[in-house]
Amino acid sequence: MADIKGFLKIRREAAAYRPVCDRLKDYKQVTKMREEEDSRDQASRCMDCGTPFCHWGCPLGNYIPEWNDYMFRGEWQKAFELLQATNNFPEFTGRVCPATCEYACVLGINDDPVTIRENELAIIEKAFEKGAVVPRPPKERTGKTVAVVGSGPAGLACAAQLNKAGHKIVVFEKDDKPGGILRYGIPDFKLEKWVIDRRIDIMKGEGVEFVTGVKVGEDYTAEKLLKEVDAVCVTGGSGVPRDLKIEGRDLGGIHFAMEYLVQSNRRVAGEEIPPGELIDAKGKKVVVIGGGDTGSDCIGTANRQGAECVVQIELLEKPAECRTGDYPWPHYPLLLKTSSSHEEGAQRQWSVLTEKFVGKDGKVKKLVCKRVEFEEPEKGTCPVMKEVEGSEFEIEADLVILAIGFVHPEHRGLLEELGVELDERGNVKTGSDHQTSKKGIFSAGDMRRGQSLVVWAISEGRKAARGIDAFLMG
Ligand SMILES: Cc1cc2nc3c(=O)[nH]c(=O)nc-3n(C[C@H](O)[C@H](O)[C@H](O)COP(=O)(O)OP(=O)(O)OC[C@H]3O[C@@H](n4cnc5c(N)ncnc54)[C@H](O)[C@@H]3O)c2cc1C
Ligand code: SF4
Asked: Among 455, 344, 340, 453, which residue's Cα sits nearest to residue 31?
């Protein structure tokens, strides 16, 4: 611990955002990068407490106090080496992680926590700037080949780890470019795509092979693949969106969030979308159903496209602004989040049930909604939702985005062909070594865990790699 009084002298300075009027004109990263001196000041706030709960709060078990200390001392290379020991892609988590670690920071008990995510980003970007992040192919190859199906953060982490262990890795991806939701879900204003390309180039330099535009189970049979490799890891994500099957759902102008975001991300990357397929918010009254992060990404996108107005509705109650007894420290609390996209303009409403969509000439024109309230649950049971009598109201809309989550991975094709067992939620079932019910077939990420976070996907990919390495090498 370099500065024993750092946390007493320096206040937390979270990442600054570009001004709203400026950032709405483009899709560039909203968060500004910090100056080196500010990063070192923020690192000095880490108390290096005896039991670092932040380390427990991070699904990757990042060595947070240790790299904060190196950073404060300006020993960037050492900080980078420690960071990459546990996290394959700090440049992704440093930009999009909800920083579960910060909610477990001991300083956060009675003060503002350390800016752990921004510190992580500062370390990795400094490493790139200094040329420290270069391809490091393994010295020896084992002669074993592993196919990774899906190139989201779980697949990439699994591939990177197995490649380091000397196995030959082929990553199959159905889209035309690798990255999964990092590329086609998360908008550029949170994660610019050159950040992914830069990492993919390094992985290619280390010998990882990427086969894009190939859907395993459709374009390439799983049977054929199994004959060619020694093990397979399926990391295909949780691709089936939750639907709202109510009256009027088949009207035009109602889309799933991923239909909207994938298209927008492709347009930002310079692709042309055929006019008949275009989903554009320009001049429209937009309603986003779903109060989570995906909904927030849709708000930011709609505002950049020039929506007339954006309303976000959520079925659940408005969360608390501060930690309540339900989520004691150091657990990750369910709190009200106001994202950079919310700041850019959106009306948010909670406890709203959508009853039906009403349209004209086949296109959606409004939503008919009701207010709901939740009765305090009996111990150990879920709250009971009740509609408030006479609370019916309407919201005008000519574009509705459904951002209410995902149910499970696509079963048809890959998973059916492999014949792996599923759990009660329809996700791929595995043992603690990530091996499925079929020998030599492993799984990780949202496909196994259900819809989750980038940091969990990386953690899962690393654990699956460990299971595969043990399976191959004994
Ligand atoms: C819009 C949106 C925003 C999000 N924002 C955040 C955020 O800010 N922070 C955060 O931590 N988490 C966020 N998440 C969650 C996070 O992105 C996911 O938890 C994470 O990407 C899961 O990683 P994965 O590798 O398991 O799957 P994915 O990222 O879904 O990748 C799966 C890949 O597999 C490919 N694939 C599927 N089937 C096949 C097949 N048969 N053959 C070949 N390829 C196949 C898919 O095309 C895809 O590229 C967000 C999610 C969404 C939807
Ligand atoms: S990956 Fe996320 S949880 Fe882990 S240290 Fe970084 S910001 Fe915190």
From this structure: 340
